[in-house]
Amino acid sequence: MAKLLVKNIGVLQTPVGSYAHKGSEQGENLKLYNAAVLAEDGLIKAITADGQLPCSEEEVDTVIDAEGNLVTPGLVEGHTHLVFGGYRQNEIPLKLKGAGYLDILRAGGGIMDTVRKTREATFEELYDKTEGFLDEMMGLGVTTCEAKSGYGIDLETEVKLLEVLKKLNEDHPMDIVSTFMPAHVVLPEYKGKEEEFIQLCIDEMMPYVKEKGLAEFIDIFTEDSVFDKEQSRVYLEAAREMGYGLKIHADEIEAIGGSVLAGEMKATSAEHLIVIDDEGMASLAKGGTVAMLLPATSFYLGATFAPARRMIDEFGVPVAMASDFNPGSCPSLNLQFTMNLGYLKYRMTPEEILTAVTINPAAGIGREKTVGTLEVGKQADMVIWNAPNMEMLCYRFGSNLALQTIKKGELV
Ligand code: NIG
Ligand code: FE
Predict the structure, then answer these.
(1) Is 110 in the pocket of ligand 1 (CB under 6 A)?
(2) Mean per-residue pLDDT, 330-338
(3) Which domains, from first to last, does the chain contain?
């Protein structure tokens, strides 16, 4: 019965409720001053405020003094492409000369370059590299993360990536939610024959991965020069039949109907949404789909920023924010930077931002019942910040403000 007490919390700030928060509720956080949290066997047992302690210090195994700092739920990272071979720093000079993301991809670079390097990498190499990323993320305050395959494209390599994630989910304190994404790029041999590739995914890949229990979600890159709306619909309908949760990379560069489709299919989440239009936002609201916004990718691509304010104020779409960590469009896994961008570029409030990196991404990856808020009975995942409040956390950037990360009631 391991017991941990965090005392002397200046302010404990958290969204409340195990569901995606939208509209004005996105900006509602509970704030308890001079608070304490008791964790027992990995779960939150009690939360107190105003200098009260839930038990005496002698009763617990570990006491942590938060020294008057801010404590929030552990951050939930809702969108990463975590397992990949090599890097793509060679693309920067091309970008600086004016090449766009899709130009590089159409010329056989971009994602295809990473596919080649990932196929060459061994299980052990990928395991070690990904483990390093998970350590880095935890040090930055992340306690649960989603991770996609999508750099193998053939079944064998895709399975290798998902096996790496499965093993790390067992070995590493991070909770990992896996997403299968074979439709991430069109291989040269399937150019003009995209339907054939979609059928291969449906007939061979999806059933195998499902049977082996290697992924909960499916994802597809619905984009100009990649997969169109109808191909995506066929793929997602089949995946839904097999029991996968649905995700769509939609409206990242060109709006070709991905977000409309996401809402129509009641996808769990829709990703990017940089160039989403009103029809897309209305569809997401109707479908109850979480908007998984990735502002660090906008920053890195030099693109515009998704209309987060309108999603919250006009359409009532629940907004989550994630890093999109990957070797091409966002080589940063720092979710704190994402929060800074949410403040400055999306003009979200610190309360809305906290919701967007905790309970809303938790709902976007099917974990809203167990993580994403600090409430009795939920996992004792929390972060003690080197900041007195959320305003400071959203304002300071470029430093790591996470002082201590606690996962299932243990310091990590
Ligand atoms: O979400 N857009 C597609 N997938 C990733 C980028 C992957 C890559 O460039 O390697 C994204 O931005
Ligand atoms: Fe992505």
Answers:
(1) yes
(2) 98
(3) 3-74+373-411 (2.30.40.10), 76-364 (3.20.20.140)
